[in-house]
Amino acid sequence: MDMISKFIESLKSFFIEIGELSYFTGKFFVEVFKRPFEFKEFIRQCYYMGNKSLLLVGVTGFIIGLVFTLQSRPTLEEFGAASWIPSMVSVSLIREIGPIITALICAGRIGSGIGAELGSMRVTEQIDAMEVSGTNPYKYLVVTRVLATTLMLPLLVFFGDVIGIYGSYLVENLKADVSLTLYINQVINILEFSDVIPSTIKSFFFGFAIGIVGCFKGYNCKKGTAGVGKAANEAVVFISMLLFIIDFIAVFVTNIFYDL
Fold first, then answer.
1. What does residue 86 show for φ and ψ, rounded to 5 degrees?
2. What is the chain's mean pLDDT, rounded?
């Protein structure tokens, strides 16, 4: 009975949190159209989340391109299909690997950062001070960060995909002396709008999920320094789970749409 009661309590807490997150998200869509628009803070957050993440995303994408090509080449050579490597790598990176890996990296870097930052502001009562002074903390802190993550993640995904394809080209150049022009032509010839558009659209949803969950966990952080670390940790775990759910839904809907 004790285990059952704990399970029921955990389930109840989960649904309460889902309800609070839904309310928090609904409030975002209300506040985003209200004046004043915090453009300066929005640009600052775009710079922090975009420019500061370029190196990490670039290095990760480059290594993925290298490893994916090195692992795939021996198998494809056995079947005489080594010439399909540029097509296979580009489609795999752009459709699935690039968006989800970049989103997971940003969940760890940006999502936890937002959770810790807003959590520390909540603990030190800076958010309460903003409310007292007449400033709308939700508008200034949450809306700007969510918009920044939603805008910057697709750009980071594009950057990671390009670097990953270039990493794959380097392997092909060393192994088979393939020219850059030939490699790029094969990539362009195989790609279609059905590969690029769905991955771009779901990247916006990934960015929105990272921003809204990170802000939710930090904004509602419990009192105490331990709450800041818990908010950052929970933000990463929750975002990672949510990213895979969004990815599954995106792939499922895409398959239905293109099968019609």
1. -55, -40
2. 86
pLDDT tens-digit series, residues 163-217: 999 998 998 888 888 888 888 888 888 888 878 888 999 999 999 999 999 999 8
Model pLDDT, residue 173: 86
